[in-house]
Amino acid sequence: MQSLTGRSRIVVNKKMNFMEKLYLPAVMGGLMITIRHLFRRKVTVSYPEQTRPFSPVYRGMHVLKRDENGAERCTACGLCAVACPAEAITMEAAERKKGEERLYREEKYAKVYEINMLRCIFCGLCEEACPKESIFLTNRITPADYKRENFVYGKDRLVEPFDPSKRVDVSERQTTQVKEFKKHKEYTHNRLF
Amino acid sequence: MPKVTIDGHSIEVPEGTTILQAARMIGGEIVPPAMCYYSSLKGSGGYCRTCIVRVAQGSAKDPRPMPKPVASCRTPVMDGMVVENITSPEVLEARKGVVEFLLINHPLDCPVCDQAGECDLQNLSFAHGTEKTRYEFPRRTFEKKDIGNYIKLHMTRCILCYRCVKVADQITDERVHGVMNRGDVAEISTYIEKAVENDFSGNMIDVCPVGALTDRTYRFKSRVWFLNPMDAHRDCKKCSGKAVLWMHGEEIYRVTARKDQNAEVKEFICNECRYDKKDVKQWVVEGPRHIDRTSVISANHYEDLNSLKHAIGEQQKKLQEKITQKTSGI
Protein backbone atom coordinates (compact mmCIF):
# COMPACT_ATOMS: atom_id res chain seq x y z
CA MET A 1 0.00 0.00 0.00
CA GLN A 2 1.19 3.46 -0.82
CA SER A 3 1.85 5.74 2.09
CA LEU A 4 -0.25 8.91 2.13
CA THR A 5 2.39 11.12 3.69
CA GLY A 6 5.18 9.86 1.41
CA ARG A 7 7.63 9.95 4.29
CA SER A 8 7.98 6.23 4.86
CA ARG A 9 10.99 4.36 3.51
CA ILE A 10 10.95 0.86 2.20
CA VAL A 11 13.49 -1.33 3.97
CA VAL A 12 15.94 -3.17 1.73
CA ASN A 13 18.50 -5.76 2.75
CA LYS A 14 21.41 -4.26 0.83
CA LYS A 15 24.98 -5.42 1.63
CA MET A 16 27.07 -2.58 3.17
CA ASN A 17 30.36 -1.59 1.53
CA PHE A 18 33.69 -1.04 3.38
CA MET A 19 33.14 2.65 4.21
CA GLU A 20 29.72 1.95 5.56
CA LYS A 21 31.02 -0.96 7.63
CA LEU A 22 33.49 1.39 9.35
CA TYR A 23 30.51 3.38 10.71
CA LEU A 24 32.82 6.39 11.21
CA PRO A 25 31.08 8.74 8.72
CA ALA A 26 27.73 7.80 10.21
CA VAL A 27 28.99 8.41 13.77
CA MET A 28 30.42 11.78 12.72
CA GLY A 29 27.19 12.67 11.02
CA GLY A 30 25.25 11.84 14.19
CA LEU A 31 27.63 13.87 16.33
CA MET A 32 27.26 16.83 13.98
CA ILE A 33 23.53 16.80 14.53
CA THR A 34 24.04 16.72 18.32
CA ILE A 35 26.54 19.60 18.22
CA ARG A 36 24.27 21.61 15.97
CA HIS A 37 21.45 21.25 18.49
CA LEU A 38 23.70 22.53 21.32
CA PHE A 39 23.64 25.99 19.78
CA ARG A 40 19.94 26.05 19.07
CA ARG A 41 17.31 27.69 21.29
CA LYS A 42 16.25 25.39 24.11
CA VAL A 43 12.76 23.93 23.71
CA THR A 44 12.39 22.98 27.36
CA VAL A 45 12.20 25.08 30.51
CA SER A 46 13.60 24.03 33.86
CA TYR A 47 10.32 23.59 35.72
CA PRO A 48 9.57 24.37 38.55
CA GLU A 49 12.15 27.22 38.71
CA GLN A 50 10.84 28.47 35.40
CA THR A 51 7.24 28.25 34.25
CA ARG A 52 5.66 28.86 30.90
CA PRO A 53 2.97 31.51 30.56
CA PHE A 54 -0.49 30.03 31.03
CA SER A 55 -3.67 31.03 29.30
CA PRO A 56 -6.15 32.50 31.79
CA VAL A 57 -8.63 29.83 30.78
CA TYR A 58 -6.14 26.95 31.15
CA ARG A 59 -7.85 23.90 32.63
CA GLY A 60 -5.59 22.63 35.39
CA MET A 61 -6.08 21.63 39.01
CA HIS A 62 -9.48 22.36 40.51
CA VAL A 63 -10.22 24.74 43.34
CA LEU A 64 -13.25 24.87 45.61
CA LYS A 65 -13.91 28.54 46.21
CA ARG A 66 -14.90 30.31 49.39
CA ASP A 67 -17.18 33.33 49.30
CA GLU A 68 -16.20 36.85 50.35
CA ASN A 69 -16.77 35.96 54.03
CA GLY A 70 -14.65 32.84 53.82
CA ALA A 71 -17.51 30.34 53.83
CA GLU A 72 -17.32 27.35 51.51
CA ARG A 73 -19.56 27.83 48.50
CA CYS A 74 -20.09 24.15 47.66
CA THR A 75 -23.48 22.77 48.70
CA ALA A 76 -22.84 19.19 47.53
CA CYS A 77 -25.61 19.36 44.97
CA GLY A 78 -23.94 16.66 42.88
CA LEU A 79 -24.31 18.41 39.54
CA CYS A 80 -20.56 18.32 38.91
CA ALA A 81 -20.53 14.60 39.61
CA VAL A 82 -23.42 13.92 37.24
CA ALA A 83 -21.85 16.13 34.55
CA CYS A 84 -18.43 14.49 34.89
CA PRO A 85 -17.85 12.22 31.88
CA ALA A 86 -14.94 10.49 33.61
CA GLU A 87 -16.78 9.77 36.89
CA ALA A 88 -13.95 11.38 38.77
CA ILE A 89 -15.96 13.28 41.39
CA THR A 90 -17.56 11.86 44.51
CA MET A 91 -18.97 13.65 47.51
CA GLU A 92 -20.86 13.20 50.73
CA ALA A 93 -23.20 15.86 52.01
CA ALA A 94 -23.86 16.95 55.56
CA GLU A 95 -26.17 19.43 57.20
CA ARG A 96 -24.80 22.66 58.58
CA LYS A 97 -25.27 23.04 62.33
CA LYS A 98 -26.07 26.22 64.20
CA GLY A 99 -22.93 28.29 64.59
CA GLU A 100 -21.25 27.02 61.44
CA GLU A 101 -22.63 29.78 59.25
CA ARG A 102 -19.19 31.28 58.83
CA LEU A 103 -17.77 28.00 57.56
CA TYR A 104 -20.44 26.96 55.08
CA ARG A 105 -22.50 29.24 52.92
CA GLU A 106 -25.69 27.18 52.80
CA GLU A 107 -27.52 24.71 54.99
CA LYS A 108 -25.98 21.77 53.20
CA TYR A 109 -22.28 21.36 52.57
CA ALA A 110 -19.86 18.75 51.27
CA LYS A 111 -18.46 16.79 54.19
CA VAL A 112 -16.29 14.78 51.81
CA TYR A 113 -15.43 15.98 48.33
CA GLU A 114 -13.00 13.95 46.28
CA ILE A 115 -11.67 14.29 42.76
CA ASN A 116 -9.62 11.46 41.35
CA MET A 117 -7.03 13.32 39.31
CA LEU A 118 -6.09 10.14 37.44
CA ARG A 119 -9.64 9.79 36.17
CA CYS A 120 -10.13 13.50 35.53
CA ILE A 121 -9.75 14.55 31.91
CA PHE A 122 -9.80 18.28 32.73
CA CYS A 123 -12.72 18.97 30.41
CA GLY A 124 -14.19 21.65 32.65
CA LEU A 125 -17.76 20.37 32.59
CA CYS A 126 -17.89 20.44 36.41
CA GLU A 127 -17.04 24.12 36.32
CA GLU A 128 -19.80 24.65 33.78
CA ALA A 129 -22.39 22.64 35.74
CA CYS A 130 -21.75 24.28 39.10
CA PRO A 131 -24.74 26.47 40.07
CA LYS A 132 -22.97 28.01 43.06
CA GLU A 133 -19.75 29.23 41.41
CA SER A 134 -17.88 26.91 43.69
CA ILE A 135 -15.65 24.70 41.56
CA PHE A 136 -13.22 26.22 39.08
CA LEU A 137 -10.34 24.81 37.12
CA THR A 138 -7.21 26.88 37.57
CA ASN A 139 -3.90 27.35 35.80
CA ARG A 140 -2.11 25.28 38.43
CA ILE A 141 -0.67 21.92 37.43
CA THR A 142 -1.57 18.70 39.25
CA PRO A 143 1.83 17.54 40.50
CA ALA A 144 3.19 14.09 39.75
CA ASP A 145 3.35 11.50 42.49
CA TYR A 146 4.59 7.98 43.16
CA LYS A 147 1.39 6.50 44.57
CA ARG A 148 -1.99 6.23 42.91
CA GLU A 149 -3.90 6.96 46.11
CA ASN A 150 -2.20 10.33 46.38
CA PHE A 151 -4.02 11.42 43.25
CA VAL A 152 -7.40 11.30 44.98
CA TYR A 153 -7.65 14.89 46.07
CA GLY A 154 -9.81 15.60 49.10
CA LYS A 155 -11.08 18.84 50.49
CA ASP A 156 -7.71 19.51 52.14
CA ARG A 157 -6.12 20.06 48.74
CA LEU A 158 -9.12 21.38 46.81
CA VAL A 159 -10.62 24.07 49.04
CA GLU A 160 -8.74 27.34 48.79
CA PRO A 161 -7.04 28.73 51.90
CA PHE A 162 -9.09 30.79 54.35
CA ASP A 163 -6.51 33.59 54.37
CA PRO A 164 -7.85 36.25 51.97
CA SER A 165 -4.37 37.02 50.64
CA LYS A 166 -3.86 33.36 49.63
CA ARG A 167 -7.15 32.90 47.77
CA VAL A 168 -7.03 31.53 44.23
CA ASP A 169 -7.96 34.20 41.73
CA VAL A 170 -10.42 32.93 39.12
CA SER A 171 -11.75 36.30 38.02
CA GLU A 172 -9.99 36.03 34.68
CA ARG A 173 -11.92 32.88 33.86
CA GLN A 174 -15.18 34.79 33.91
CA THR A 175 -16.04 36.34 30.61
CA THR A 176 -17.39 39.86 30.27
CA GLN A 177 -20.80 38.34 29.49
CA VAL A 178 -20.84 36.51 32.83
CA LYS A 179 -19.81 39.64 34.71
CA GLU A 180 -22.49 41.62 32.90
CA PHE A 181 -25.09 38.93 33.67
CA LYS A 182 -24.39 39.13 37.38
CA LYS A 183 -25.18 42.82 37.50
CA HIS A 184 -28.83 42.24 36.54
CA LYS A 185 -31.27 42.61 39.39
CA GLU A 186 -33.57 39.98 37.89
CA TYR A 187 -31.00 37.24 38.40
CA THR A 188 -30.42 37.88 42.07
CA HIS A 189 -33.17 35.47 43.09
CA ASN A 190 -30.64 32.80 43.95
CA ARG A 191 -29.12 34.67 46.83
CA LEU A 192 -28.91 33.57 50.44
CA PHE A 193 -31.55 33.49 53.11
CA MET B 1 -72.82 11.43 28.39
CA PRO B 2 -71.33 14.87 27.69
CA LYS B 3 -68.91 15.09 24.80
CA VAL B 4 -65.98 17.46 25.21
CA THR B 5 -63.29 18.54 22.74
CA ILE B 6 -59.89 19.41 24.16
CA ASP B 7 -57.32 20.77 21.69
CA GLY B 8 -59.11 18.97 18.88
CA HIS B 9 -59.38 15.61 20.70
CA SER B 10 -62.98 14.59 21.41
CA ILE B 11 -64.00 12.29 24.23
CA GLU B 12 -67.22 11.26 25.92
CA VAL B 13 -67.01 11.38 29.68
CA PRO B 14 -69.45 10.72 32.54
CA GLU B 15 -71.50 13.55 33.99
CA GLY B 16 -69.60 15.64 36.53
CA THR B 17 -66.12 14.95 35.16
CA THR B 18 -63.86 17.97 35.27
CA ILE B 19 -61.95 19.26 32.25
CA LEU B 20 -58.66 18.16 33.82
CA GLN B 21 -59.91 14.61 34.36
CA ALA B 22 -61.22 14.47 30.78
CA ALA B 23 -57.85 15.68 29.49
CA ARG B 24 -56.10 13.00 31.54
CA MET B 25 -58.37 10.39 29.97
CA ILE B 26 -57.14 11.54 26.56
CA GLY B 27 -53.56 11.81 27.82
CA GLY B 28 -50.46 13.11 26.12
CA GLU B 29 -49.18 16.64 26.01
CA ILE B 30 -52.62 18.25 26.14
CA VAL B 31 -52.99 17.41 29.85
CA PRO B 32 -52.80 20.67 31.82
CA PRO B 33 -50.18 20.63 34.59
CA ALA B 34 -51.52 20.60 38.14
CA MET B 35 -49.70 21.60 41.30
CA CYS B 36 -52.49 21.38 43.87
CA TYR B 37 -55.13 19.07 42.38
CA TYR B 38 -54.77 15.45 43.48
CA SER B 39 -57.35 13.04 42.13
CA SER B 40 -57.38 10.80 45.21
CA LEU B 41 -57.78 13.68 47.68
CA LYS B 42 -61.29 15.06 48.01
CA GLY B 43 -61.63 18.81 47.73
CA SER B 44 -58.12 19.37 46.41
CA GLY B 45 -57.55 21.75 43.53
CA GLY B 46 -58.38 25.33 42.75
CA TYR B 47 -55.48 26.95 44.60
CA CYS B 48 -52.53 27.05 42.25
CA ARG B 49 -54.17 28.03 38.94
CA THR B 50 -51.53 26.27 36.82
CA CYS B 51 -54.20 24.10 35.18
CA ILE B 52 -56.06 27.05 33.64
CA VAL B 53 -57.51 26.51 30.17
CA ARG B 54 -59.58 28.56 27.77
CA VAL B 55 -63.14 27.41 27.15
CA ALA B 56 -63.84 28.48 23.58
CA GLN B 57 -67.37 27.15 23.64
CA GLY B 58 -69.30 26.73 26.87
CA SER B 59 -71.68 24.00 25.70
CA ALA B 60 -73.78 22.92 22.74
CA LYS B 61 -76.76 24.88 24.09
CA ASP B 62 -74.83 28.03 24.93
CA PRO B 63 -71.86 28.27 22.56
CA ARG B 64 -70.48 31.51 24.01
CA PRO B 65 -66.85 31.30 25.19
CA MET B 66 -66.13 31.75 28.88
CA PRO B 67 -64.85 35.28 29.53
CA LYS B 68 -61.68 34.30 31.40
CA PRO B 69 -59.41 31.26 31.55
CA VAL B 70 -60.88 28.74 33.99
CA ALA B 71 -59.25 26.31 36.41
CA SER B 72 -59.71 22.99 34.64
CA CYS B 73 -59.50 20.96 37.87
CA ARG B 74 -62.65 22.62 39.22
CA THR B 75 -64.73 23.12 36.06
CA PRO B 76 -67.06 20.26 35.13
CA VAL B 77 -67.50 19.52 31.44
CA MET B 78 -70.70 20.33 29.55
CA ASP B 79 -71.96 18.61 26.45
CA GLY B 80 -70.38 20.17 23.38
CA MET B 81 -67.75 22.05 25.31
CA VAL B 82 -64.65 23.09 23.34
CA VAL B 83 -61.51 23.59 25.40
CA GLU B 84 -58.19 25.01 24.31
CA ASN B 85 -55.08 24.26 26.30
CA ILE B 86 -51.76 24.21 24.45
CA THR B 87 -53.36 25.43 21.22
CA SER B 88 -54.22 28.75 22.83
CA PRO B 89 -51.35 31.25 23.15
CA GLU B 90 -53.46 33.13 25.69
CA VAL B 91 -53.47 30.13 28.04
CA LEU B 92 -49.73 29.58 27.71
CA GLU B 93 -49.09 33.24 28.43
CA ALA B 94 -51.39 33.17 31.47
CA ARG B 95 -49.74 29.98 32.75
CA LYS B 96 -46.36 31.60 32.43
CA GLY B 97 -47.65 34.39 34.65
CA VAL B 98 -48.94 31.85 37.18
CA VAL B 99 -45.55 30.16 37.31
CA GLU B 100 -43.91 33.52 37.89
CA PHE B 101 -46.28 34.13 40.79
CA LEU B 102 -45.62 30.68 42.27
CA LEU B 103 -41.89 31.37 42.12
CA ILE B 104 -42.11 34.79 43.75
CA ASN B 105 -41.63 33.47 47.25
CA HIS B 106 -39.92 30.23 46.33
CA PRO B 107 -36.26 30.36 47.37
CA LEU B 108 -35.02 28.36 44.33
CA ASP B 109 -32.50 26.55 46.49
CA CYS B 110 -32.65 23.50 44.23
CA PRO B 111 -28.94 22.64 44.75
CA VAL B 112 -29.70 22.12 48.43
CA CYS B 113 -33.20 20.70 48.15
CA ASP B 114 -33.77 16.94 48.33
CA GLN B 115 -36.74 17.18 45.97
CA ALA B 116 -34.62 18.48 43.07
CA GLY B 117 -34.84 16.15 40.09
CA GLU B 118 -38.35 14.96 40.89
CA CYS B 119 -39.93 18.32 41.75
CA ASP B 120 -43.16 19.30 40.05
CA LEU B 121 -42.41 22.99 40.39
CA GLN B 122 -38.98 22.51 38.85
CA ASN B 123 -40.51 20.73 35.85
CA LEU B 124 -43.26 23.31 35.57
CA SER B 125 -40.94 26.30 35.64
CA PHE B 126 -38.63 24.59 33.18
CA ALA B 127 -41.52 24.05 30.79
CA HIS B 128 -43.44 27.29 31.23
CA GLY B 129 -41.42 29.76 33.25
CA THR B 130 -38.93 32.38 32.32
CA GLU B 131 -35.39 32.12 33.56
CA LYS B 132 -35.47 35.42 35.39
CA THR B 133 -37.71 37.01 37.96
CA ARG B 134 -39.00 40.57 38.03
CA TYR B 135 -39.34 40.44 41.80
CA GLU B 136 -36.59 42.39 43.57
CA PHE B 137 -37.81 42.43 47.16
CA PRO B 138 -36.97 40.19 50.11
CA ARG B 139 -38.80 36.87 50.00
CA ARG B 140 -40.75 35.55 52.94
CA THR B 141 -38.62 33.35 55.15
CA PHE B 142 -39.43 30.84 57.86
CA GLU B 143 -37.41 28.72 60.22
CA LYS B 144 -37.01 25.06 59.28
CA LYS B 145 -39.15 22.80 61.41
CA ASP B 146 -39.24 19.13 62.30
CA ILE B 147 -42.72 17.67 62.02
CA GLY B 148 -42.29 14.54 64.06
CA ASN B 149 -39.25 12.31 63.75
CA TYR B 150 -39.56 11.70 60.06
CA ILE B 151 -40.65 14.85 58.26
CA LYS B 152 -38.80 18.12 57.79
CA LEU B 153 -40.78 21.23 56.90
CA HIS B 154 -39.18 23.96 54.82
CA MET B 155 -41.93 26.53 54.83
CA THR B 156 -39.91 28.85 52.55
CA ARG B 157 -40.32 26.36 49.70
CA CYS B 158 -44.06 25.82 50.21
CA ILE B 159 -46.49 26.98 47.53
CA LEU B 160 -49.56 26.43 49.75
CA CYS B 161 -51.20 23.75 47.64
CA TYR B 162 -52.96 22.26 50.70
CA ARG B 163 -52.30 18.70 49.53
CA CYS B 164 -50.62 17.72 52.80
CA VAL B 165 -53.51 19.18 54.76
CA LYS B 166 -55.91 17.05 52.73
CA VAL B 167 -53.77 13.96 53.38
CA ALA B 168 -53.81 14.66 57.11
CA ASP B 169 -57.53 15.23 56.91
CA GLN B 170 -58.59 12.29 54.78
CA ILE B 171 -56.00 9.53 54.93
CA THR B 172 -54.73 9.71 58.49
CA ASP B 173 -56.99 9.19 61.48
CA GLU B 174 -56.73 12.47 63.29
CA ARG B 175 -56.02 15.86 61.86
CA VAL B 176 -52.87 17.33 63.32
CA HIS B 177 -51.81 19.34 60.35
CA GLY B 178 -53.16 22.54 58.88
CA VAL B 179 -52.50 26.01 57.58
CA MET B 180 -52.27 28.92 60.00
CA ASN B 181 -52.65 32.59 59.13
CA ARG B 182 -53.52 33.92 55.72
CA GLY B 183 -52.01 35.41 52.60
CA ASP B 184 -48.34 36.18 52.66
CA VAL B 185 -47.78 34.83 56.17
CA ALA B 186 -49.81 31.62 55.72
CA GLU B 187 -47.90 28.73 57.18
CA ILE B 188 -48.19 24.95 57.29
CA SER B 189 -48.31 23.95 60.89
CA THR B 190 -48.93 20.97 63.09
CA TYR B 191 -51.76 21.70 65.48
CA ILE B 192 -50.17 23.26 68.60
CA GLU B 193 -46.78 21.63 68.02
CA LYS B 194 -48.30 18.18 68.04
CA ALA B 195 -46.14 15.78 66.11
CA VAL B 196 -47.60 13.78 63.27
CA GLU B 197 -47.72 10.26 64.60
CA ASN B 198 -50.32 8.42 62.58
CA ASP B 199 -49.43 5.55 60.34
CA PHE B 200 -49.91 7.21 56.98
CA SER B 201 -48.43 10.62 57.74
CA GLY B 202 -45.41 9.90 55.54
CA ASN B 203 -47.55 10.28 52.46
CA MET B 204 -47.41 14.04 52.93
CA ILE B 205 -43.86 13.82 51.59
CA ASP B 206 -45.04 12.12 48.42
CA VAL B 207 -47.96 14.44 47.73
CA CYS B 208 -45.90 17.59 48.30
CA PRO B 209 -45.21 18.97 44.80
CA VAL B 210 -42.16 20.90 46.03
CA GLY B 211 -39.48 20.23 48.62
CA ALA B 212 -41.41 21.74 51.52
CA LEU B 213 -41.98 18.38 53.17
CA THR B 214 -39.05 16.02 52.89
CA ASP B 215 -38.01 12.72 54.41
CA ARG B 216 -35.70 13.23 57.39
CA THR B 217 -34.28 9.73 57.11
CA TYR B 218 -33.14 10.56 53.56
CA ARG B 219 -32.10 14.11 54.31
CA PHE B 220 -28.99 15.07 52.28
CA LYS B 221 -28.01 11.39 51.91
CA SER B 222 -27.75 11.49 48.14
CA ARG B 223 -29.41 13.05 45.11
CA VAL B 224 -32.25 11.31 43.31
CA TRP B 225 -30.37 11.03 40.03
CA PHE B 226 -27.60 8.98 41.64
CA LEU B 227 -30.07 6.39 42.91
CA ASN B 228 -31.71 3.47 41.16
CA PRO B 229 -35.49 3.36 41.56
CA MET B 230 -36.72 -0.23 41.83
CA ASP B 231 -40.29 -1.47 42.02
CA ALA B 232 -40.76 -3.68 45.05
CA HIS B 233 -43.46 -5.03 47.29
CA ARG B 234 -43.82 -6.72 50.65
CA ASP B 235 -46.62 -8.18 52.71
CA CYS B 236 -47.96 -5.36 54.80
CA LYS B 237 -51.05 -5.53 57.02
CA LYS B 238 -51.63 -1.79 56.92
CA CYS B 239 -51.10 -0.86 53.27
CA SER B 240 -50.74 -2.42 49.83
CA GLY B 241 -47.00 -2.77 50.37
CA LYS B 242 -46.26 -1.65 46.81
CA ALA B 243 -43.43 0.84 46.84
CA VAL B 244 -40.38 2.17 45.04
CA LEU B 245 -36.98 1.51 46.58
CA TRP B 246 -34.37 4.14 45.82
CA MET B 247 -31.22 2.10 45.88
CA HIS B 248 -27.51 2.56 45.52
CA GLY B 249 -25.93 -0.83 45.10
CA GLU B 250 -27.55 -3.08 47.68
CA GLU B 251 -28.40 -0.24 50.03
CA ILE B 252 -31.88 1.28 50.25
CA TYR B 253 -31.63 5.04 50.68
CA ARG B 254 -35.34 5.70 50.87
CA VAL B 255 -38.73 4.20 50.14
CA THR B 256 -41.53 6.07 48.40
CA ALA B 257 -44.95 5.22 47.07
CA ARG B 258 -45.42 4.63 43.35
CA LYS B 259 -46.37 7.66 41.29
CA ASP B 260 -48.32 7.36 38.05
CA GLN B 261 -47.84 9.40 34.87
CA ASN B 262 -49.57 12.38 36.46
CA ALA B 263 -47.12 12.27 39.39
CA GLU B 264 -49.88 11.07 41.66
CA VAL B 265 -49.78 8.29 44.21
CA LYS B 266 -52.64 5.84 43.76
CA GLU B 267 -51.75 3.44 46.57
CA PHE B 268 -50.51 5.18 49.68
CA ILE B 269 -48.00 3.33 51.83
CA CYS B 270 -47.69 3.20 55.60
CA ASN B 271 -44.89 4.62 57.70
CA GLU B 272 -43.59 1.17 58.56
CA CYS B 273 -42.89 0.42 54.89
CA ARG B 274 -41.50 3.88 54.32
CA TYR B 275 -39.14 4.31 57.23
CA ASP B 276 -38.44 1.00 58.90
CA LYS B 277 -37.87 -1.42 56.05
CA LYS B 278 -34.51 -0.33 54.68
CA ASP B 279 -33.11 -3.79 54.07
CA VAL B 280 -33.45 -5.41 50.64
CA LYS B 281 -34.18 -8.78 52.27
CA GLN B 282 -37.46 -7.40 53.59
CA TRP B 283 -38.69 -6.64 50.08
CA VAL B 284 -39.46 -8.56 46.91
CA VAL B 285 -37.77 -6.55 44.19
CA GLU B 286 -39.73 -6.67 40.93
CA GLY B 287 -37.31 -4.76 38.73
CA PRO B 288 -36.26 -1.28 37.65
CA ARG B 289 -38.99 1.32 37.72
CA HIS B 290 -39.94 3.02 34.46
CA ILE B 291 -38.56 6.55 34.44
CA ASP B 292 -39.50 9.07 31.81
CA ARG B 293 -36.64 9.76 29.42
CA THR B 294 -36.99 13.50 29.98
CA SER B 295 -36.24 13.06 33.68
CA VAL B 296 -32.74 13.55 35.02
CA ILE B 297 -33.23 10.33 37.00
CA SER B 298 -33.13 8.36 33.74
CA ALA B 299 -29.40 9.08 33.43
CA ASN B 300 -27.58 5.74 33.81
CA HIS B 301 -30.88 4.07 34.67
CA TYR B 302 -31.30 0.94 32.57
CA GLU B 303 -34.76 -0.55 32.80
CA ASP B 304 -34.38 -3.54 30.54
CA LEU B 305 -30.98 -5.04 31.20
CA ASN B 306 -31.60 -8.09 29.02
CA SER B 307 -32.35 -6.07 25.91
CA LEU B 308 -29.40 -3.85 26.68
CA LYS B 309 -27.10 -6.87 26.95
CA HIS B 310 -28.58 -8.20 23.73
CA ALA B 311 -27.97 -4.88 21.93
CA ILE B 312 -24.38 -4.74 23.15
CA GLY B 313 -23.88 -8.36 22.06
CA GLU B 314 -25.21 -7.58 18.57
CA GLN B 315 -22.87 -4.61 18.28
CA GLN B 316 -19.91 -6.69 19.35
CA LYS B 317 -20.82 -9.39 16.84
CA LYS B 318 -21.01 -6.82 14.02
CA LEU B 319 -17.67 -5.36 15.06
CA GLN B 320 -16.07 -8.81 15.15
CA GLU B 321 -17.39 -9.56 11.66
CA LYS B 322 -15.96 -6.30 10.35
CA ILE B 323 -12.56 -7.09 11.86
CA THR B 324 -12.47 -10.60 10.39
CA GLN B 325 -13.49 -9.23 7.00
CA LYS B 326 -10.72 -6.65 7.11
CA THR B 327 -8.01 -9.05 8.24
CA SER B 328 -9.00 -11.68 5.65
CA GLY B 329 -8.97 -8.99 2.94
CA ILE B 330 -5.35 -8.13 3.69
Please mark out the parts of chain A with pLDDT under 50 across 5 or more consecutive residues, or reply none: none
Rg over CA atoms of chain A: 26 Å
Overall body shape of chain B? globular
Beta percentage of chain A is: 5-15%
The low-confidence runs of chain B, each spanning 5 or more residues with pLDDT under 50, are none
Number of strand segments of chain B = 14
At CATH level 2, the architecture of the domain at 62-161 in chain A is 2-Layer Sandwich
For the record, give the distance between the C-alpha atoms at the N and C termini of chain A, rounded to a whole number.
70 Å
Based on secondary structure, the structural category of chain A is alpha+beta
Multimeric status of the protein: heterodimer
Overall mean pLDDT of chain B stands at: 88
How does this model look, in words?
The complex is a heterodimer of chains A (193) and B (330). Chain A is an alpha+beta fold. Chain A is built from six helices and five strands. Chain A has helices at 18-22, 24-38, 79-83, 125-129, 155-158, 176-183; strands at residues 62-64, 89-95, 108-116, 135-137, 152-153. Chain A has a three-stranded antiparallel β-sheet. Chain A has a two-stranded antiparallel sheet with strand order 1-4. The termini of chain A are far apart. In chain B, strand 12 (242-248) and strand 13 (251-256) form a beta hairpin. In chain B, helix 2 (89-102) packs across helix 3. Chain B has seven helices and 14 strands. Chain B is of the alpha+beta class and 330 residues long. Helices cover 23% and strands 18% of the residues of chain B. Classes of the chains: A alpha+beta (193), B alpha+beta (330).
